[in-house]
Design a protein that fits this description.
Blueprint (H helix, E strand, L loop, with lengths): L2 E3 L8 H5 L1 E2 L5 H10 L4 H17 L13 H10 E2 L4 E7 L5 E6 L5 E8 L4 E4 L3 E2 L17 E2 L2 H14 L23 E4 L9 H12 L11 E5 L5 H8 L3 E5 L5 H7 L8 H9 L10 E7 L7 H10 L5 E7 L13 H13 L23 H12 L5
Parallel strand pairs: 2-3, 7-10, 10-11, 11-12, 12-13, 13-14
Antiparallel strand pairs: 1-4, 4-5, 5-6, 6-7, 8-9
Helix pairs in contact: 2-3, 5-6, 10-11
The structure holds S-adenosyl-L-homocysteine and iron/sulfur cluster.
Length: 391
């Protein structure tokens, strides 16, 4: 059964609205905030590390919990700041346990975050922008007009909010345990594959990844964070140097002529330049491979000749291949390849030595699958306008 719930949240009072949240901030920003309320210079280092632990290790949502922080400081903090996460407009749980949250940011813009649980791991798919300035022809997000970059704390806030909702803080109990992984940690991996082109919001995404990877905090190792890009070639080596997470490339075509059409940024940085940047990505080995994503579009890029060309193209790069069945959206100009064709295509890829290359679609019933992340917000807005329950 698919469940949709509007989360009851009281509208912020004027006082609460004036209190900026500390949840999602980096160490430097926390340092500045504490200094701004008069914490003495000599105490700042200790106070930052106390707050860091409460916010990112234990997931505290109230200053009252911070028992090792002096009471008067706790009161001052509570008067000036909050620990609020982004506001949840709706939460949907798919039959397969996938969860999708529609979030409203402080300026009223919406983004979506998706959690995909599996037996032994849980992957959180987060957004880096509201909408996307690029317009890949198979992607619904790209048709959204309004675009802005998310701040680092809005990006980190998505991880914190997901941890709240699935009870992934030490000692917390999940409200709804449907389909959650069996291990102690429910979110083991983070992928920047939600809305937006993360390399067009480089600094904020880099800062957010550093906060997420901090070993004294959220502790999601860089080996378990994957950034997916449509191919912003000049930023790839910089990302390798400054962030060094795992990398996924939205390839989707093996010839420039077709890729120009599907992923128009290819006209600026064609396949050869993109693959050169991949080859030079730091630290690549058989244990650290680049993932190449390939959406299966019926009669467009799914021939056996394409499959052979794909494995040839990637031959000298430590690579994984991820075939993504096309997820349809209203008015999309493509259809998903027939399952039989996907299997034949996968067989060629498999024979070339790539294991289990097909990504099974998750959360399609709640429009949470790759590339579907615009439609549900629109549905939501429509139902809100009509004053009814969300679709
Ligand atoms: N902008 C980045 C990350 C977000 S998209 C990028 O393009 O890589 C995440 C993945 O979903 C990309 O590989 C994207 O090409 C793919 N995708 C987009 N729309 C899709 C759709 N309708 N069906 C299947 N995959 C889609
Ligand atoms: Fe943007 Fe990625 Fe969608 Fe292309 S596939 S429009 S880069 S979100």
């Amino acid at each position: 059964m698919t469940t949709t719930a509007l989360i009851d949240q009281a509208p912020p009072t004027d006082q609460a609205a004036a209190r900026a949240s500390l949840a999602g901030l980096g160490r430097e920003a926390l340092w500045e905030r504490l200094a701004s309320i008069g914490v003495p210079e000599r105490q700042l280092r200790m106070r930052v590390s106390q707050l860091w632990g409460w916010i990112y290790v234990r997931g505290a949502n109230s200053f009252d919990l911070m028992t090792d922080v002096a009471k008067d400081l706790r009161q001052t903090l509570a008067a000036r700041f909050s620990l609020d996460r982004p506001e949840i407009v709706s939460e949907q749980v798919s039959v397969d346990g996938t969860r999708k949250w529609l979030l409203r940011l402080a300026d009223g813009k919406d983004v979506e975050t998706v959690y995909i649980p599996e037996e032994d791991r849980g992957t959180l798919c987060i957004s880096s922008q509201v909408g996307c300035t690029l317009n890949c022809t198979f992607c619904h997000t790209g048709t959204q007009r309004l675009v802005r970059n998310l701040t680092a704390s809005e990006i980190v806030g998505q991880i914190m909010l997901a941890r709240d909702r699935i009870g992934d803080w030490p000692g917390a109990v999940p409200e709804d345990p449907t389909g959650l992984p069996s291990g102690a940690r429910k979110i083991t991996n983070v992928v920047l594959m939600g809305m937006g082109e993360p390399l067009y919001n480089f600094d904020n995404v880099r800062d957010a990844c550093a906060i997420a990877a901090d070993g004294a905090g959220l502790s999601i190792s860089k080996r378990r964070i994957t950034l997916s890009t449509s191919g912003i070639v000049p930023e790839i080596p910089r990302w390798g140097d400054e962030a060094g997470t795992m990398l996924a490339i939205s390839l989707h075509a093996v010839r420039d002529e077709l890729r120009d059409e599907l992923v128009p940024i290819n006209k600026k940085w064609p396949i050869r330049e993109l693959l050169d940047a991949c080859r030079a990505y730091p630290g690549l080995s058989n244990a650290k491979r680049i993932t190449f994503e390939y959406v299966m579009l019926k009669g467009v890029n799914d021939s056996i000749a394409d499959a052979k060309a794909l494995v040839k193209l990637l031959a000298k790069i430590p690579a994984k291949i991820n075939l993504i069945p096309f997820n349809p959206w209203p008015g999309a100009p493509y259809e998903c390849s027939d399952w039989e064709q996907i299997e034949k295509f996968a067989e060629v890829v498999n024979r070339a030595g790539y294991a289990s290359p097909v990504r099974s679609p998750r959360g399609r019933d709640i429009m949470a699958a790759c590339g579907q992340l615009k439609s549900a917000s629109l549905k939501q807005r429509t139902s809100e306008r009509l004053g009814g329950a969300p679709a």
